[in-house]
Design a protein that fits this description.
Blueprint: E1 12-13, E2 18-25, E3 31-32, E4 36-38, E5 50-58, E6 64-72, E7 81-86, E8 92-99, E9 103-112, E10 117-122
Parallel strand pairs: 1-4
Antiparallel strand pairs: 2-10, 3-9, 4-9, 5-8, 5-10, 6-7, 6-9
Length: 123
């Protein structure tokens, strides 16, 4: 179930934008973040695969964690598929270079212990 699903259509992010799907939050897993639409470059560049970067960090390291980066062609909860799963309790940076979805979100699938999660998404 998403934390913030009232925005329709969802916010669009473009190359060069930075957003925080989770910003020092402590959601109860499983919880999905706000979804974002991936807008194309303003310069009219040819459509191609998108590059997205995620930086995942915790206020205090959890004992165990599962964070999923998900994408969808249509913005419907059932249509989101997992592109990458992070289980690194120390956090990590992930760069996905062949991102094909039109929408993106982060799912905190599980977390045992630890502090608030922050996920920085950069286009």
């Amino acid at each position: 179930m998403p934390n913030f699903n009232a925005q329709n259509p969802p916010f669009a992010i473009y190359p060069g934008n930075v957003v925080y799907p989770f910003d020092a939050e402590t959601p109860a897993p499983p919880r999905a973040s706000q979804q974002y639409a991936l807008g194309k470059a303003y310069d009219g560049a040819a459509a191609g695969p998108d590059v997205v970067r995620f930086d995942i960090s915790y206020a205090a390291a959890p004992t165990a964690v599962s964070v999923e980066i998900q994408s969808a062609v249509d913005d419907a909860d059932a249509d989101y598929v997992t592109e990458y799963t992070s289980t690194n309790v120390n956090g990590e940076s992930v760069k996905l270079t062949n991102f094909r979805g039109r929408f993106v979100r982060v799912l905190l699938a599980s977390q045992t212990g630890g502090g608030a999660i922050t996920v920085r998404l950069e286009r």
